[in-house]
Records
---
Amino acid sequence: MSCQLCNSDVLELISSKDAKSSEPLNISICNTCGLIQQTSIPDEEELNRYYHHEYRQDYKGVYTPKAKHVYRAGKTALQRLNFLKSAGVKSGRMLDVGAGGGEFTYLADRTGFAARGVEPNKGYSEYARNEYQCNISTGNLDRITGQYDVITLFHVLEHLPSPQSAFQQLYQLLSEEGYLLIEVPWIEARDASPHNIYFKAHLYYFSIDTLTAAASQYFDAIMIDTASNLKILFRAKQAPSRLRLPETTSVVNIRQRLSQKGWLEYLFQGRGLVKPFRKLAERMKERKARNFRPKEILDQFLPAQMGSTTLPRLNELKVPLTQNG
Ligand SMILES: [Zn+2]
């Protein structure tokens, strides 16, 4: 196989095992552009079979997330909205691709955007429609038409067989100089457990440089955040241009980052040692969410909290309802 970004044939194997299943999974780095990718990218049909089996994407059952998951998703959605807000992106027609249970779409729609979402999983999208009355359709990016001022993809791009054709599609859906927010796991992160990196579902493992390069025909990166995952806010170019590959020094740097990944770095620089304590404090907050309905949990993240880093206090809600999850 050749590199999916630059077509070079110089791929070097860096891992051969799936972190979840321990089954064989070949991951390579391109020595020309630095993109880390599955050595053999499955085709559309193969991917559909995989998702059908692993993710039960088209199952008709009822999806009911636990309150703590709604709380976590709401908190993450707020951080993402604040990131957009800090770049001056506060309103407009918005499309969230891979909307999941609809938490982000709902909160975006309540805080200034005219938001809709698209989600391939029937259970999730039905849940979002019923629980939050948000505009989420069941399906993939291919089905989407219309024009948007802002498009968001949270943990979606790394699952798509061709990032470049995705960028082309997204460019066509965006209004002139529209915004595109992409969030993916960050291959350069110090706080990821070293034995938890490569999965069959993730076809690509981006660095700042390779993600910027993959988007470069259609988008310019305008804001980058690596607080947990890699978030890049892009702006659509006035006209498509040539692909700009990362510099050679960038490839050297990525290789160096990979060689530093290990338990020592994770525990000391990645703050792996304090993780259990930080988690405990969060668990306490999540527990309080149990007595509220999903929409009430999300509503606690609304206006007064926008722009502040203070998290809402669920125990201050006036009318506790019956247990839900
Ligand atoms: Zn390459």
---
Amino acid sequence: MAKKKPPRSVSTSVGKSPQESAVTMTEIVLPSDGNSLGTIFGGRVMSWMDIAAAIAAGKHARRVVVTASFDGMHFVAPVKVGHVVHIRAMVNFAARTSMEVGLRVESEDPLTGERRHTATAYTTFVALDQLGQPTPVPPIVPKTLEEKRRYSQAVKRRESRIRLAKELKHQER
Ligand SMILES: CC(C)(COP(=O)(O)OP(=O)(O)OC[C@H]1O[C@@H](n2cnc3c(N)ncnc32)[C@H](O)[C@@H]1OP(=O)(O)O)[C@@H](O)C(=O)NCCC(=O)NCCS
């Protein structure tokens, strides 16, 4: 009889590269995804982005992850019904229990292959343990110049989010 493998433990001290969490998700824009202009409804794009980001965060943490926030959501160009959408997601930075996942969306005209940048966002995901409590994740070890740039910008975004939250809380008193 085959021996049952013990569950794999997740090391939270060994760093992982952003590339290990990279995800590309491809969808086609159906008429039911569109608005009255014949382009995609923004909420549909955000739903796909949330899924791609959750997969990337889950690959990094190897834990159950939940969306904590969606920041810097920018729709830079519309996407036509019938066009293809590519969503790229990758963990840019990991703090203690949270991770920033960067997202870039491109559309593709299926007849010409022409691609356009259509949306960008930064999301924060939190890893949870079996009791649903935030649990530590491995650090990110950026390797390439691009990964190092994304890492340092993610640190700045986190610092600015925390600073703003403190300021607003202080004003409420
Ligand atoms: C996200 C959640 C687990 C955080 O729980 P919490 O009790 O606030 O936990 P803590 O205060 O201990 O914070 C845990 C981490 O989350 C981060 N965090 C909490 N709220 C955040 C927010 N709004 N944006 C970004 N990060 C946030 C904290 O900075 C901290 O990160 P760190 O450990 O890396 O420093 C909780 O708010 C939650 O369950 N939210 C609902 C999630 C959900 O239902 N998502 C949609 C469906 S997946």
